[in-house]
Amino acid sequence: MSSTTEIKSLHRSPESFVGTSVTINGWVRTLRSKKSFGFIEINDGSFFKGIQVVFEDNLDNFEEIGSFGVGSALSITGEVVESPGSGQSIEIKATSVTLVGASSSDYKLQKKRHSFEFLRTIAHFRPRTNTFSAVFRIRSLVAHAIHTFFQERNFVYLHSPIITASDAEGAGEMFRVTTLDLMNTPTAEHGVDFSQDFFGRETSLTVSGQLSAEAYALAFNKVYTFGPTFRAENSNTSRHASEFWMIEPEIAFADLQDDIKLTDDMMKFIVSYVLEKAPEEMEFFNKFIDKTLLERLTTFVNTPSEHLTYTKAVEILQGSSKKFEYPVEWGQDLQTEHERFLAEEYVKGPVFITDYPKDIKAFYMRLNDDQKTVAAMDMLVPGVGEIVGGSQREERYDVLLERMQALGLSAEDYWWYLELRKYGGTPHAGFGLGFERAVMYVTGMENIRDVIPFPRTPKSADF
RNA sequence: UCCGGAGUAGCUCAGCUGGUUAGAGCAGCGGACUGUUAAUCCGCGUGUCGGGGGUUCAAGUCCCUCCUCCGGAGCCA
User: Fold this and answer.
1) A460 CA, B50 C1': Å apart
2) 0.95 cut: is pTM over it?
3) Å between CA of A441 and C1' of B5
4) What is the separation, in whole angstroms, between the first and last Cα of chain A?
5) Closest nucleotide to residue A234 (Cα to C1')?
6) ipTM surpassing 0.85
7) A377-415 per-position pLDDT tens digit
8) Closest-lying nucleotide for A438 based on CA to C1'
9) How do beta strands A90-101 and A51-56 pair?
């Protein structure tokens, strides 16, 4: 195949291409043909914008070109010229237009506006639309930003296992992994005999890599995981998916304040990175998806984040004149309406809530000196809500064991996790960032299904 | 899972207190047009009215049930 030019490079330095001949490969977005000439807008996926191609009746397949449908794959060679039209600075005057892959008139992606709901039903075509082209380029950039952030700070990227032994994580319903014949399962005294299963025990898809990350943080000091996680919860919301990606850093010799600092630095790095690398996409989101997006993101990057303790947050909520559906009471978890009020109305920006009552938080979170709260933190952002959840981990063997016993957890199941506290344990902390929620925050997209290429949610695993 | 809303043409939607041949815009197709930008102008076609059951002389419209989707809540990231 002859060398091709990416449309992105045409847009980034148009002057340098004027007068030269280029070949581009891409898909037809719109095609308008007239009696003796016509226009093709073609997009190759390299850039948010496509390029306009002019074809005239001196081409031997002029008639045929006029009949190419939206979605056709074309290879076009031509001269880059300054455009006499007002919509673009340059265009390509075609010397050859070759049909690589035909489309047809029943192509589902029409040259008109479509609802996101409809586009979800044609998930294989939606990356060819402006919005999803931008979304998934940003998603890729956010992933790169995350790796860059941690690698630059000498964190080790840990691949935590995707198949895990069950009952060792305790973060929601899990998808079972088995090779047993479901029509004829071997049974033991108390149900299915998992000793005959592939791994000789009951296994599931991971719901969190945190426990693995803790072990590795106590060897490498600074690690992060970044991979898929699975929750079999019957959650039907715009913020939950059954399969999603999570970033879970873990740092040793560190406390909750270090953890918060890391979270804040990371989030600001991601936002700055995307604003710098994808200005066209971000302007598009600001114009068509959320008109306050750029203002919100630049404010976030340039403003120190707010911190509130849970206790203080409860006081604020109780003292506000706002009427809540659920009453606010110390000891109760904050409801979505409370979190939204704090982030969207009280702080008007991202806010860290720390030191929650121990009874509403996980067993591994470090007990504070007041014996009532734990060193936990949630980062709440306007629009998305909880985007990060983290904590300083309980490093004291006896305190951890006591806490597990109080919650009825088996020390046997967590034997290696407990051993980390017996041999060279240190104060350490970490957090989990929902990758898709970060993408939603950065793009302004409101439904998690629209920031995942092929989303898995309850009752939906098409494609 | 709970609460609320919706499902009618390829898409977005209208269709009144049941009434006989179910509508519009857009997309598509055909034609016109020397510079379009979601082009414009003229012409053309399009339906298991989400599935099943029921009430009725008659159901897109009323009732029951199931399914799916959307918004909110819970669970969380």
Assistant:
1) 17
2) no
3) 27
4) 31
5) B1
6) yes
7) 999 988 888 899 999 999 999 999 999 998 888 888 899
8) B77
9) parallel
